[in-house]
Structure formats: structure tokens, C-alpha cells
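Note to self: keep these together.
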Amino acid sequence: MKELRINRIVRQTRTEGFGNRYCIWVQGCSIRCKGCANREMWDETGGEIYSVASLIEDMEQQGGQIEGITVLGGEPFEQSGGLLELVKCCKEKGYTVILFTGFFYEQLLKQPEKREILSYTDLLIDGPYMEDKRDFTRPWVGSSNQKYIFLSERYSEKDLKEIKNKLEIRISKEGGVWVNGMGNINK
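Structure:
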């Protein structure tokens, strides 16, 4: 069974895609966009190692309350072996798959393993974050160059019309604060 290096998991969230989602932030990113909000995820030696089997088991323990999985980071496609196994298992179990990447769709299509990952993906959000093109008017993206690429019949552009950006704040029992989601919090 393959593994993924992960920075963090949110088991149920409504801020990282359609419906209630199991959300994984992978660890490691060589793209390193200027102005990135997740710089702590750049180091490929950080985070923790999880087997794909343990992730699928954890998803199944959510009691049927999740629609699908969202994987972002870091850079998910830099862990192609584990990512492929994860998305394939998710689709076999009926979950939808949303992936974020700093690579362009056209780049991914040129590599067989990455192209196979796309065959199990419902929505790909591609392109690097560009600080000079910062834009929070569309859900889940941070800059205007990033694109939604609908790769299955499950979701379409019309589904985005009712979606607004949201922030979710979680406080752990130990007092740690986590924020996820997207929005302009500087206003």
C-alpha cells in the first residue's frame, strides 16, 4: 500500500469544495509561489506519513457524512504514487475527488501517471498562486490565473454560481487554532 506525506487533515469541512468533504493538505512543494499562504507545507521532510489504507479507513469512519475528498497542499502531484492510489480508492467507494495543483493541466497531461490521476478526478483547480493576480471573487482560488477544470459529469461551472468563499476556524482541545477556507480577511 502506498503512502502520502501529510501536513494536516480536516475530516469534515464545507469550505474546501462542494458539500461536506474530507480534506487533506499534503506536505512538500517545489513550486513555492511568492505570497503562498501555506509556506509551512513547502518542506518535503515535514508532516507525517500516512498509508493510503489508513486514510480510506478514516474516511469510511465518517459515517457516510462526506461527499468526497479534496487534496491540496503543498503540491499533491509531487506525491503521484500515493495520490493515484488514494483517488482510485476514493472513486471505487463512490466519493468525488477535487484536486488543487500549482501545475498547469497541460503539464500534467504529458505524464502518464499524472494523466491517470486526472482520470479519477472530478474537478481540478490548476495554476500557481500569483500574488500580483490575487483575487478572492471566485470560490476556493486565490488568484485570477487559476482555472477550474471539470473532468467528469459530477460538477460543472453552473454549480459554482451559488458558492461563496468561507473561512472555518477550529480550536483544538489543547488551544491550537486552525483556519481553513479562502477569503479576503484583510478588509
